[in-house]
Amino acid sequence: MKWYFFIGLLLFLSSCNEYEYEKPLTSVCKATIDTNYIGFWQFVGYKTFNDFNLQVDSHYLMIVPFNKNEYVIVVHSTKENTNSLPLLLKAHLSLLKNLSLANVSVLDGTPGNSYVYYGVKAHNDSLYYWGFIKNKLPHTFRAKKFFTLHGEDTLYLSAIRKYKRVKVRFFN
Q: What is the pLDDT of residue 161?
């Protein structure tokens, strides 16, 4: 059972080369829910930067509010004949001037999980998110200031993933 969980984890995080830290960029109690991100999203493609090796299968994201500050994200493969379980993540937004960063952590009941920071944008029925390559970032830096200045700078990006909103009817 745990083996399937790790497949899902690899699907989402895709590489240990993306920047992560033991604390969120901003406190969860200061975060708010942006309804533009809520929905069912189908992966449609990506663009890599800096020779980043992204290995990702077709999948869906379901993003729902967990409370007034956090989202739960369900990642599920669209591959046929897969026995993998969906991956559960939690996230909250950090707003830095004109950039939203998602503080994403695996929701597995383990205390002390680290956070991966992803730039995020939702426009019309498209969702984009991107990570930052660990070895491209300075060894020591002030994260808020750095991401405010360089949050969309392709010198530091790993890959931009793109999703399309899927209209889903759960009830007739």
A: 94
CA dihedral 34, 144, 91, 139 (to 10 degrees): 150
| Token representation of residue 72 | 């739960």
Strand 115-123 and strand 39-48: pairing?
unpaired
Task: Give per-residue pLDDT as tens, 95-115.
Answer: 999 899 999 999 887 777 899
Q: What is the pLDDT of residue 43?
A: 95
CATH 2.40.128 fits 2-165, yes or no: yes
Token pair in block for residue 168: 């889903």
The identity of residue 146, as a single letter, is F
CA pair distance 127, 143, nearest whole angstrom: 24
